[in-house]
Each structure stands twice: as structure tokens, then as C-alpha cells.
Amino acid sequence: GNWSFRRTDLDLRQYLGFLADRRVIALRALVSSSHATGGSTGVPFYLMPTLGGNDTLRGFRNYRFRGPHALLFQAEYRWELWSGLDAALFYDAGKVALRRSDLNFSKLQDDYGVGFRFNTANGVVMRVDAAFGSPDGKHLHIVFGGVF
What we know:
Elements: E1 5-18, E2 23-36, E3 50-51, E4 65-66, E5 69-82, E6 85-97, E7 109-120, E8 123-132, E9 139-144
Antiparallel strand pairs: 1-2, 2-5, 3-4, 5-6, 6-7, 7-8, 8-9
């Protein structure tokens, strides 16, 4: 069928370095909203915002939550263990909603975990995250590149 829709993503990130930038608090807030336009009946499910997996709610399987609207908060405390290896503690919280008005702070899905980042002067090359705290159980993510 023919689909006509609009999707808007707002992805805010803040990095707070201290102790000569050897320690960082990384914060992320993501809001995503989609809706049909031009008489279309909806947004294709495979193009709706999703949460879950190695970049969003890390304690849940990939694409665990899907809906026309999504809200995500992430925080990481990162510190250098050795040159080329950083550790991180993280917390993720978010939700999807059928209506934009339901994007609020109630009934957020959340998880927490620990990770390691292997990096070079150009950035994170690979990361390993172990996530806990979700009904889906524990999740281990091995990913090339950073999270945010």
C-alpha cells in the first residue's frame, strides 16, 4: 500500500567530564513521534520507533517495544581503567505509547548494567555491555562502536 506519514526524532546528549576528563557522565534523552499524513491509515509498523537492544533499552531484546511514539533516557558513568580501555555503569529507562499524550514518566521500562569500551584516539572501537533488571532476563551485547 501507499504510506504517507511524518516521523520526528529529538535526540539530546550531554557529556560532563571531570578529573581531567578521565571520568565522564554521559546523558541522553530521546523523543520520537510518528503519525499518518495525507489521508494515510497509519505508520508502517517496521518504521515505527522501537526500544530494546544494544543501543536503547539494553536489558531487553532487540525491538522489544514498538509504537508510534517513544521516550528514552540513558545515563552512563564512564571512567578510564587503562589507556584504551574504559569501564561504564549505565541506566536506561523508556517507553513507547500509542498516543503522544501518553509519553510521560509513569510506567517506564528500565534496566541497568556494566560495560567496557575498547577505544583508540578516534573513538570507541568496540564495547561489551551486560544489562540486568528487566523481565526479559540478562543480556550481553558485543557491539562495534559506541552507544551514544
